Amino acid sequence: MIKTYKRIAAGLLALVVLLTTSSCKSKLSPKQDGVPSGDAAMGRYIEEEYELPENIGYVQMFKQRDDGVIELLCNSNPDTALGPWSIFTSADGGKTWTKKDTPWISELDNAVIQGADYAKDGSLHIAYLEYPAEVIEMVKKGEQPQEEPQSKQFFMVVDAAGKASASEKQLPKDESMASISNIKVADNGDYVFYNYFSLNQVDPNTMKIKNTFTPNSVRQLENYLVFGNTLVQPDGDSVVLFDLETGKNLATIPISADNADADSLGDAERLITVSDDNKALYLCDNTGIYRRLLDGNVFEKVVDGELTSLNMPSLTRRNMIVQKSGDILVLSQGDEGYVLLNYSYSKDVPTVPTTELKVYSLQNNKTIRQAMGLYQRANPDVHVSYTVGLTGSDAVTASDALRSLSTELLAGKGPDFLVLDGMPIESYIQKGVLLDLGNLVNEPIAKGEYLPNVAKTFQLDDGKLPAIPARFGVPVMQGDDSAFASIHNLDTLTDYLVNAKIDANKQRVLASTYPETLIRQFYPGCAPAWFAQDGTIRADALSDFIKQMKKISDTEVQNEYSNEKQFEIRYDAMDWKYNAIQLNIGTLQSHNDIAAPEAAIRDKGQGKLAPLPGQTDNVYVPQTVLGINANSAQQQKAIQFLNLVLSEQIQDNNFFDGFPVNSASFEKGAKNPYPPNDDGMVYTSSFKDENGNIQEMMELQVIWPSDAYMKDMLNTIRNLNTPCTVDAVLQQILVDETKDYFTGAKSLESTVTAVTEKMKLYLAE
Questions:
Q1: Which of 213, 249, 355, 566 is most buried, by the most CB atoms less than 10 A from its CB?
Q2: Transmembrane segments in this chain: where (predicted)?
């Protein structure tokens, strides 16, 4: 089955641009020419945000001219790539901007600019599309054509004296058939276009392809570089240099400076540029900025992402300039528009801040990284060091990581700030390793600033609050009206699936019946039933859970590919609409997740979306659970960091890692973020036979839910009252010890005994 998810009229991508978007190992100081090198205890690049011109919409070019002046080509509407267009210049490194006098640019008012770049002789080359007038008017009104309109390709060349000339030219396309979306001009005058899957070097006179450069990796190539007659093409964990005179490979350079950075540098949003003297390459991603002399051996980290806003997942890096002064400008984009960050070297600050706030979580957490970026910007004298216990780059298990962490915490050491997801929170509470947060959050909870049902999850009988979730997920089920009439708990849900009448060739009971996937999805709605109030394990409830999971799994024959499918409540809604699955289950992680199930219900004319029945009812999953080490020497800074994580400034961001606990952010998240006439996304899927012939097409048009439907869902979510924190070790014990039972090699009784014994040993630690 092949699935695609795309905006309606995706072929108009060029016309309607919906812009959504480690420790410092190299201690470098600048040379006299402004290029950093050498070891020193002092010296660091300091981040500063510069103001951009007002009413910046969509930025098409961000370029440093040979004279050091920076130019920015943009329109005033972030929702389209249409004009009117303007060019702004900055002669002081991006601090201030002046609108450039460009009479010729009015000719592009109704044009879609695809790319622009300066040639060696100072001329500006612009590739653009023109559409029929009626199409332009529709787009300006926020409407979209029913069919993809025809366009004409033009090129404009503006010489150094400001004289413009335009001509219609047809460009070659790669197998994606996508229009170009970037242009670079080599010193020999050739154009290098970005065509989604490849880069094409084109003769500007004939528009014939001279060379095609295709990476070995499957990543897109938007962030490529041309300097002189050299092309620099990112390719997986390397950058490849090509000679544009001969088309030959000049060099393949590994990206990672050392093994510790190798994995983190695998970022699709990596920027690449060259120093003003063309002697060094610079790379930028969320981990920092790296520099490598072209005749050098390694990339060195010159800016640590953890100490800057580069670490923030809400910002997408778009462009980078290394100025003649040695300062580095990074143009990024977020939900509120573009952000220009300048990195200037100061020899008078410590290479790493002398004060450290240690943050720890088992899994990487985007909400925490967002808070780190803002905290670092406001507190440059503090280093927020973030340790992730399970990186996937080694053989460390959750049990290993938690054993080491617990040893440190019980010894009065360890991190200052904890993200407790996956950890034995109850054990930490009993052992007194967590600071009481009641004095910090009880008053805001009472005032309604945080959702009380979630914020009070860990409140003790004496009023103390040792932990608070910043976010939460909601396990849900989507089914026909008849399903909800029959299903009330885990047992009746299992019976419904086991007795379902399906065509095994094209129907399934669930999107996945793989045992481990089932265990992880149903764990939150059932785990609270496995433990008595005194903490002892209820073997009968645990036994029933394992038995029901096997019944569901046995509805299909498992194979080596069964574990590849996960539950995705949004994308599986289309399958439910067409009865390809009997029930659509998953976990809501944001307001956006509600849209596709609601669309499927609307199209099908019946059905519901409600909390997932299990061995307990009305379950929510506390996520990004925050705690402070009671023995931390940095408690005040940890408190500041906690308040920041819970603030609207952080909680307004949607990283699909849970609903916000902040009440104002929770309400704002329910509002339709799209224009009034937006016709949403189209999900499509097709079944093919063994010969590749399409047997059935499925389609789901997803728009933002109606106010009434969203209101009902939010009321349901507010009334959830059964929290279930996922203990990573307990969950893994369940997965590991039941494998033989699911294959039939072990009895239910012996399996339950093995699971309970392992759980008891872990809980006793």
A1: 213
A2: none
Q: Which helix (DSSP H) or strand (DSSP E) does residue 553 occupy?
A: helix 539-553
What residue type is 19 in one-letter code? L
* 172 in Cβ contact with 202 (< 8 Å): yes
Map out the domains of the chain as residue ranges.
2-21+26-168+255-352, 361-470+622-667, 472-619+673-726
Does the N-terminal peptide bond of residue 36 adopt cis geometry, omega within 30 degrees of 0?
Answer: no
CA distance 699 to 686: 9
Tokens of 183: 């242009």
d(CA 282, CA 259): 18
Q: What is residue 486's three-state secondary structure?
A: helix
Please state the CATH superfamily assignment of the domain spanning residues 361-470+622-667 in this structure: Periplasmic binding protein-like II (3.40.190.10)
Structure tokens at 204: 């500007």
How many whole angstroms separate alpha carbon 323 and alpha carbon 316?
Answer: 21
What is the rounded average pLDDT for all residues in the chain?
88
Contact residues for 743 (Cβ-Cβ < 8 A; gap 6+) = none
- The strands making up 2-7's β-sheet, listed across from edge to edge, are 2-7, 681-688, 694-702
Q: What is the pTM of this model?
A: 0.86
Encoding tokens for residue 46?
Answer: 């300091």
What residue ranges in 522-647 does DSSP mark as E strands?
584-588, 608-611, 619-628
Question: Residue 418: which of 452, 469, 346, 481 has the closest Cα?
Answer: 469
Name the packing angle between helices 635-645 and 366-378 (round to 10°). Answer: 120
> Residue 761: phi, psi to the nearest 5?
-60, -45
Of 256, 191, 195, nearest to 221 (Cα)?
195
